[in-house]
């Protein structure tokens, strides 16, 4: 494609506005490379660079002094046809990510690049490099390690693509090792945990499996049946059944989002009764919600993950089991 010159003033302005950040992002670049990047002639690039060199901000004196203007390495420009900015105007004062913000974003990108479906890792690496250069200070060096093997996730996703079944040993919440045959539908994450969702041929229903409890994973040659391959998954990760236990929890209203996956129902303000307040009084900022769990072991896990946040209110048996479990856990510390 032949180079063309911007003719309209708006085109020239757009070119200049795009050229400045490009030159800042590239410390030392040849004029021909810039011309090829923007599809203009080399002479037009040289003209634009000369214009940039007399552009700036008025400064405190409103006279556009030397320190108020862009500047380039003129020897490199005249002798070697290369562009090197030596002074930037107002760029360092523009809003930037802090070192901590950039480090957090880079950590998130590292996590995404470890997933099998993100094949374009070069684009992610380029974005991380830009975040490093564009931060107000050098971000902390972080390394994100995945709790789950990328190989395990890759095997499951390959089975999904091939529309075949999986076999594996699964350690359930009661501590029993059970052999399962599952037609996988998808892999999802909630907080730090990863889950496999699909049609369980042992239970004859959709089930959710934690990846860290799966072992001896094998891809079979058995194709997915028409019934289980067409199963519609619910939006919520945890789907209650008729055999589940109904539990009433009390927690701060602001913490309701933490139990969204359990589909809480009958949410209402918590009330307190005391000798000082014989009338039922709303407890400030606290609510009660009803949710379903598969068994008391699952309730223990929920309480452990939200220790100090949730309180089991009903039924009495659930309160007793959780209290006894907590007391048993605290007993060794009390003996010490």
TrEMBL record:
Residues annotated as domain PafC HTH: 11-133
Pfam families in the cross-refs: HTH_PafC, WCX, WYL
Residue span, WYL domain: 153-219
WCX domain segment(s): 281-328
InterPro entries: CBASS_pafABC_assoc_protein, PafC-like, PafC_HTH, WCX_dom, WYL_dom
Name the record gives this protein: DeoR faimly transcriptional regulator
UniProt organism field: Cryobacterium roopkundense
